[in-house]
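Incident review: delayed structure delivery

Summary: a single-chain prediction request sat in the queue longer than the usual turnaround. Root cause was a stuck worker, restarted by the on-call engineer. No data loss occurred. The affected request and its eventual output are reproduced below so the record is complete for anyone auditing the incident later.

Affected input:
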Amino acid sequence: MTRNIFIAVLSIVIAAGVTLPATAQPSSRQVSLADVATAVLRSNLQLRAAAFDVVVAQAQLAQARGAKLPQANLAGSYTRNQEQPAFDPNVYAASLVVSYPLSTGGNLEARIRLAEANLRGAQATYERTKQQLVYGAEQTYLQALLASENVAAAQRSLAQASESLRVARARFSAGAAARLDVLQAEVAVASAEQALVQAQTGAGNAVANLNAALNMPLDTPLALTDTLTPRPVDVALAEAITQALRDRADLAALRSRIEAAQAGIDVAQSGGSPTVGLGAGYALSNANGQSPTIFGGWLVTLGVTLSVFDGGITQAQIQEAQLLLEQLKVREAQTRQQIELDVRVASLALQRAAGELAAATKAVEQGRESVRLATARYQSGVGTSLELLTAQSNLALAEQSLASARFNQNVARIQLFLATGSR
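Output delivered after worker restart:
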């Protein structure tokens, strides 16, 4: 009885044209190339670690500078002794002492320079980390765009194959084509369907990788708002190399390490120099219980310290610092060479991409014209089914090559930005 009532109500609803609520589909999140860079810089853990290095270097610099400032120490004590005749068992003492390093043989000044160089190095490393992360995220975004274009190309190829199958069946029914034409068209449709599935799988993987780069749930649907439209870069090779050697943050970080090593030599050499310190203060006490009242007095101290013999430690430290400096200079030369190589490779990649793009664009134009002619010939009974399918297959390959060429041009462009340190 209940089941009959439910069926009757459902019939009324359908007859009345009432639409049942559909399951809500998650809306796609729009993402641009600029959004990718912003999101990566906001949430990446590697960048946060590099930021902590900068903060630590700032704290170390504050410590080094603070060591040159006057130091004030306040001390106080109370002691209860065993009672003795003529002595107060309560002992009070308090003092305020201010000390200032008049000369440390250049030690404190060298430590400040070392800390400043380390801070500049940490800031440069942070900047280079940002550039590398943005490059990687933008490349992932471009890969997602390429995957999307491959899906669109596969869909067009499937539509063409389906239309060819429809025409082949119509001609076969009319007795104007052989059964072989239909079979060939069916094989072409099956192949196009398989290519579409592969392209859709690749697009799904690319979106998941992009979500991972953005630190979002991997199944978040995305709507990519940019395209693979080529963006030409007009810069001479010599100018790009000069810019890279001037702006590359990793080279700046290495130069800061060299400056720090030079300051480290000065720190080591200061170990053999005298240190001079000035101290002044005021003390209050009851003379260890011998006075019934508390009285005070001031004091001034001038101290000089000179290391006469330290077992060769200072000389060994100087040698170590000098060797570290020479090692860093070698690495600087190696880094400069690598930077020039990076720029040359990126520039050649741009040139190759431009050539590939021009050739692929022409191939697509020719492929579309070939498909148009082959379709007209086949429909008029002059051409063969194989001729049409071959033209369609060649067009699909040409469109894939064009998408790859557009992708390569965009990747080469951001690769050049990374190589020159301009972003």
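Verification: The first strand starts at residue 29 and ends at 31.
Action items: add queue-age alerting; document worker restart procedure.
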